[in-house]
Amino acid sequence: MRLRHPLRSMSLILPLALLPALIACHGAADPPPPLSDAAKAAVVAHPGVPSEPLARAADALFTTPGIGKTQALLVLYKGRIVAERYADGYTRNSRFLGWSMSKTVTGVLIGLLVADGRLRLDEAAPVPIWQRPGDPRGEITLRSLLQMRSGLANQEAIADLGADDAVRMLFLDGRDDMAAYAETQPLETETGKVWRYSTATSVILADIATRALTDSHDPAVRRAAMADFLRARLTEPLGLHSMVGEYDAAGTLEGGSMIHATTRDWGRLGEFLRAGGAVRGAQIVPSDWIRFMTTPSPANPAYGAQVWLNHAPHEGEDELFAGQAPASTFAAIGHLGQYVIVSPAQQLTIVRLGNSDSPQRAALRPLLADLMRAFPVSRDDD
What does pTM read for this prediction? Predict the structure, then answer.
């Protein structure tokens, strides 16, 4: 019998013995690429959470293809800025149009007037043309308007832009007197039963607020009354020095879509809401009003009163990320991917401003959820 040379046998055995290790090395995930200088500079030195995961999650909002363009990002944790970044051409002093984030400002404005006793939540909304005998719109309350369940006819975000009520109101036949356009729409469904997103509804709310401040029909007087009230009761107390609204030719605040502010001021608004309507210990709007705004509408659990909630809707596309972040999360959300996301359970406010169409926003939302996951849940989520 021929004996195998021991060294030759060993040369055959060693590769076999090392095979599992070689396979494991080959299958190991490649390390992530190094962070760019911009990604590292966006995060403060001691953010209160691990810096690298935060920087990577924030960087993804600027570098991931297919999500549109992020122009600004601000993250506030436990009341302080822990991450901030701007795309080329934008700075902390740039004002950004909030689009439908303006609706949340309008919701707070109505809360101030309800707290003052000038408006009542569950009485007929004080729109003069609805108060004629036999007009079914006389059953519409302030509550149903705030919760987007007035029953008024409205088509929004449809393919035919010429028939889109928001487009017609803002840019076409309704642009000079937006409230008149919105308030003359007929009742299409029973008040309170059907949820329908409506920019026109928020303009009606802004008109109601203006008429609570002045009886004048003079556009300049109406505009001044609203601007003075907003400045004295909201923007100055909150330090929102950059926040300005646009007005139509009738002097009505375009409270559904046309309020501008810097990224930091949008963040201050979010922090104000997270604090239950208080700032620096002063209660600006009753905490019960913020609780109302963040309570699900009876007709859509994913919507409150001029804010979006992190719950699955009855039907249609999610606007936030139910199941991927605390259920108590809520947000002001605007056209083209404007977000002020507030997570009370995480002591967290995130502002993302940019330009993303509908498919891009669907890809963007998981990245926003990833950013939220960089922060712990610090108290029980209601």
Answer: 0.90
Q: Which residues contact 213 (CB under 8 A, 6 or more apart)?
A: 113, 118, 225, 226, 229
Q: If we measure between CA atoms, which residue out of 111, 46, 144 comes closest to residue 272?
A: 111
Contact 342, 329 (CB under 8 A): yes
Q: What is the per-residue pLDDT across 326-356, written as a single tens digit (0 to 9) for each?
A: 999 999 999 999 999 999 999 999 999 999 9
- The span from the CA of 223 to the CA of 200, in Å, is 18
Tell me, yes or no, whether 84 and 188 share the same domain.
Answer: no
Q: Is residue 27 part of a domain?
A: no
CA angle 123, 124, 128 (to 5 degrees): 140
Report the alpha-carbon distance of residue 258 to residue 256 in Å, rounded: 7
Task: Decide the pairing of beta strands 308-309 and 69-77.
Answer: unpaired
- Do 110 and 197 lie in one domain? The reply is yes
Q: What is the pLDDT of residues 276-313, one digit of tens each?
A: 999 999 999 999 999 999 999 999 999 999 999 999 98
76 plus 217 within the same structural domain: no
pLDDT value, residue 162: 77
Q: Which domain holds residue 116?
A: 95-262+280-285
Q: Considering its fold, how many domains does the chain have in total?
A: 2
